[in-house]
Amino acid sequence: MNDWIKNLFPDDAKRTRAWEEMGEIEETLTLFRPTGLLELKLIADSGFLYFPPRLPDQPIFYPVLNFEYAEEIARDWNAAKTGVGFVTRFEVRSKAALEYEIQIVGSEHRHLELWIPAEQQAEFEQSFVGKIEVVAHYTTALFAREIDAVTHLPLEWML
Question: Over the stretch 80-118, which tens digit does the pLDDT of each residue have?
Fold first, then answer.
């Protein structure tokens, strides 16, 4: 294994975080999910109530625990690859989220995810409180369409 990978992910690295380490837990938790345009369209088609089911090669649904990490993925991965990336935010009943361990996938203070098995996604979504919101977008020169600055949705979706 490369030395830089070993440095980033040492064998003795902590891979999960206890919920108790996160501070006081309220009745609901705010989670985030970075998306691309196609996934966002499917979310919009659901009335902003659900995320699309995982594809066969996607065994987990992974919301993230903070805006900064979702922003990093939307900006540096989604937008860099396809020209546009979005950050969604949603509330979930804490009881449902606490069923899953917090996964540390990089920096133990920033790169935090919940790994919900794909077959449990629909049940997890029944614990959402309110609608999924689009809270940010990032574009590159690869994306030629206009995005509304307030809703963060493509303008043609708003007609």
Answer: 999 999 999 999 999 999 999 889 888 878 899 999 999
Give the three-state DSSP class for 111.
Answer: coil
Beta partners for 26?
Answer: none
**Distance of alpha carbon 147 from alpha carbon 26, whole angstroms:** 33
Range(s) of the domain holding residue 88 = 32-158
7 within domain boundaries: no
**In the chain, how many domains are there?**
1
Residue (of 60, 42, 43) closest to 119 by Cα position: 60
- Is 124 part of any domain? yes
User: How far apart (Å, rounded) are the C-alpha atoms in residues 46 and 48?
Assistant: 5
Answer yes or no: are the C-beta atoms of 70 and 117 closer than 8 Å: no
* Residue 122 domain-assigned (yes or no): yes
Whether the Cβ atoms of residue 32 and residue 85 lie closer than 8 Å to each other: no
* Dist. CA 111–CA 19, nearest whole Å: 15
Handedness of CA 97, 42, 84, 153 (dihedral sign): negative
Look at residue 10 and tell me if it is in a domain. Answer: no
Q: Which pair of tokens denotes residue 97?
A: 């989220």
